[in-house]
Amino acid sequence: MNAGKVDFRLALRNVLRQRRRSLFALAAIGFGVTAMMLATGYIEWIFWANREEIAIPQYGHVQVSRPGYQANGKSDPLAYLLPDDPAALAAVEHLPGVKTVSQRLDFSGLVSHGESTLSFLGLGIDPAQDPSMHNVVIREGQTLDVGDPKGILMGAGLAANLGVKTGDTIVLLTNAPGGGLRAIEGHVRGLAAITVKAYNDSMLYVPIETARELLRVQGAHLWVVMLRQTEMTAATVARLGKTAPLNKLEIIPWYQLADFYNKTVALFSRQIGVVKLIIACIIVLSISNTMTMSVMERTIEIGTAMALGIRRKRILSLFLMEGGLLGILGGTIGFLAGYLLATAISYVGIPIPAGPGMAHDFTGRVIITPGIARDAFVIAISTTLLASIYPAWRASRLVIVDALRHGR
Predict the structure, then answer these.
(1) pLDDT above 60 (res 2)
(2) Whether 385 and 363 share a structural domain
(3) Is residue 254 part of a domain?
(4) Domain termination residue (choose one: 191, 220, 248)
(5) What percent helix, strand, coil does the chain show, rounded to 5?
(6) What is the greatest pairwise CA distance in the chain?
(7) What is the pLDDT of residues 144-154, one digit of tens each?
(8) 0.70 exceeded by pTM
């Protein structure tokens, strides 16, 4: 224990006495850690934004449907209707962690205004509870309201192509079950900018009761379950599978539906892995050079220590301890700088123009999670220890006589 304390003091003294070289080493480690934290934090924000702002509002945390609806329901949606079962909905809503349960009814058809007619994709929703309402930006007018059953919320692109504005009367036409056509008249309550441009040019929302009236059906295609925390998804899926009214239905979590999100995570995770590898190589080369120069300058000192009876193993551990101290100090400096820069950048925001298929711009952030902070320290310490192995081994293998005569 006493020898360890002495070695630690010696290692700290050796780091501090070579101030210029240590400062360069600490700057290299700190810069690498800061760069890694900012890059990883920005990617973490991309994951968060795709998950919490796009995927989950679109799909909900959990979707309940008839078996086969997700695979085949678009070709024959009316064959996969869930029953109008208030007792089953209440059972789901009272499960731990469940925030809301809403119903969705998909339909499609033609929308007409004057002499213009276009095809549309429609979604009947509960205006007060459906999470999809959080994924749209109202450009004009108002969002849906239960008190206005004939009010329709249209994508701004669809409205522009049809030539309508807020307050205009439109007619929805669709195929009725069993054949024939059904039509209903409504008015444009608001225009929305939906994130994905393809939907912005074809999507409209109506209260689910209006959709049922148009299709002459009851029930819904989906029960959309929203949770208080995304981390509760897996546990809630397990509970739903054991709930009696739902054990014959298909229960799918959001991460099995969000294919774009999963591909984004896979792609950016590989990219950030390459960034970490590059930063690790920079730190290794920098610290290796610093430690090698330290060994060369202290050759006589090392020879004297071994001549006085210090074992080679202790010389090895002393230099490894110096490398570890550089990693801890550099990692701490880099973490503090990275956290402060991430806070400042997030406060100002990163303007991100709308990409292909997107309807509006975004403001980016940098999110520093405990996992990112842990990885920063692990990379700082592990790379400095790795870089110290060869110089430390070289110092421990010096011949005492040659070390004492070094430079003479």
Answers:
(1) yes
(2) yes
(3) no
(4) 248
(5) 55, 20, 20
(6) 105
(7) 888 888 999 99
(8) yes
Per residue in 349-404, pLDDT (tens digit) is 888 876 554 556 778 899 999 999 999 989 988 888 888 888 888 888 877 777 67
Q: Return the minimum-mean-pLDDT range out of 181-190, 331-340, 363-372, 396-405.
A: 396-405
- Mark whether 281 and 396 lie in a shared domain: yes
The burial class, CB within 10 Å (0-12 / 13-18 / 19+), for 143 is middle
Residues 315, 226 share a domain: no
List, for residues 153-175, the tens digit of each pLDDT value: 998 899 999 999 999 999 999 88
In 126-215, beta strands by DSSP E:
136-141, 151-155, 169-175, 181-194, 203-207
Structure tokens at 102: 């809403």
The strand ranges marked E within 176-284 are: 181-194, 203-207, 222-227, 250-253
Pick the more confident residue, 292 or 176.
292
Tokens of 125: 């929703």
Average pLDDT, the chain: 85
Q: Does residue 61 lie within any of the structural domains? A: no
Is residue 154 within 8 Å of residue 164, measured between CB atoms?
yes
Alpha carbons 233 and 248: distance in angstroms, whole number: 19
Q: How far apart are CA 353 and CA 351, in angstroms?
A: 7
Residue 60 domain-assigned?
Answer: no
Same domain for 117 and 236? yes
Residue numbers of the domain that contains 159: 67-248
